[in-house]
Amino acid sequence: MHSDIFPSTPPAAAATAEKHEEEEEEGRGTWKHAAFHVATTIATPAAYAPLPFALASLGWPLGVTSLVSGTLATWYSSLLIASLWKWNGKKHITYRELAGSIFGFWGYWSVALFQQVASLGNNIAIQIAAGSSLKAVYKYFREGGSLSLQHFIMFFGAFELVLSQLPNIHSLRWVNALCTFSTIGFAATTIGVTIYDGKKTDRNSISYSLQGSSSRKTFRAFNALGIIAFSFGDAMLPEIQNTMREPARKNMYKGVSAAYGVIILSYWQLASCGYWAFGSEVQPYILSSLSVPEWTIVMANLFAVIQISGCYQIYCRPTYAYFEENMLSSKATGRFPLRKYLVRLIFTSIYMALITLIAAAMPFFGDFVSICGAIGFTPLDFVFPSVAYLKAGRMPKDAKCRLSMQLLNFAIATWFSVVAVLGCIGAVKFIIEDIRTYKFFHDIRGICLTSTKYK
After folding, report:
1. Of 88, 143, 229, 254, which is least packed with CB atoms within 10 Å of its CB?
2. Which of 280, 60, 286, 260 is nearest to 195 (CA)?
3. Residue 291, SS3 per DSSP
4. Amino acid transporter transmembrane domain: which residues (predicted)?
5. Alpha-carbon distance 328 to 333, whole Å?
6. What is the CA radius of gyration of the chain?
7. CA distance 151 to 24
8. What is the mean pLDDT of each run of 10 residues along the chain (455 residues)?
């Protein structure tokens, strides 16, 4: 039921939405394209490479439970969002417009805020990961090379600026197909090397006990919950569904389920193998813990960079769309055809410069992952879908099914709201410690993305 006080979307947004519907061509993507997009946005090396560390921070029982419940909850939540496609007879082409149609003014702007936090935080984290992977490859071929982490972060930013000139998500479909295969390649390579290194290690020297004082164990556990929330982050489902051909809802169901098949095969195996191999000493980025054979680690890093490049692009799109909506008009682009491309180049350059500067200045990968998961992804991927489905009144007619679904949605929204708060507390504490320990534009010697608090 819509609010009479607040419009479903702000007036300016409604006008831009109307303009988008006039200009946007009908979706042409298949369920396979949806699977590529969803797998690219979720299953990035930056997302699941920290999972062994998250398990080490929680221990086997709580760690495995959190990972499995996070997988099932986000799979379910993604299907809920897909089911709300045209829920009131109108096509909602962005997450914020869907929120506005259900919750009104505050829903629109809350989701817009969370989506920006998720997008910016995600891209800062994965740009750090990409730069570090590139440096690891460079060090393998030129051990005494003088280029720093910051150089590779800038190289990656320049490459992303070029990709940013592609017009929309659908234009990235072949990039994301390559990224999905790189996800599988990264997972297979990393899992294989992890098992190899684990077997070469003296198993009696591996400890699985939680490290540090009681307070440190608690904060690390909070931080780990944020990392797990980040690992399932996908704040772009309506935008992806907008690229689907009809029946869009059915294609999205199939695409999401196929993507989660990839996620389960990669996430669960890498998390458990990484924790088994290195125990409590596993690093926040699993490649930091690997040692031999070196050429396979280089290959894993190359897979990581390829995959990350597509994920980065999808998360740029809400920010680009917001600025383009407010800077472009049909009349202006009609009189000056090149204006659209010039505006895109200017704003993508500003965006890329900002993200690159932050990533280069504060390369604290694990902490950005956690705070991004807590503040950005948890509300969008766990809380909002459950609450929005209840608000939209899409419950089953059968009384028992309706009650069960209501209780499940309420439980997911409540628990993961708590997770968001706890994850934020843990991440903020460790970011403060990092800033006290390191200078800005801190370099790394190899692939290590950690700080001394993890060692």
Report:
1. 143
2. 286
3. coil
4. 28-426
5. 7
6. 22
7. 38
8. 39 43 59 86 78 91 91 91 85 86 89 83 83 87 84 92 82 79 85 89 85 83 83 82 87 92 86 91 82 83 87 81 68 62 85 89 65 76 89 80 90 88 80 71 51 34
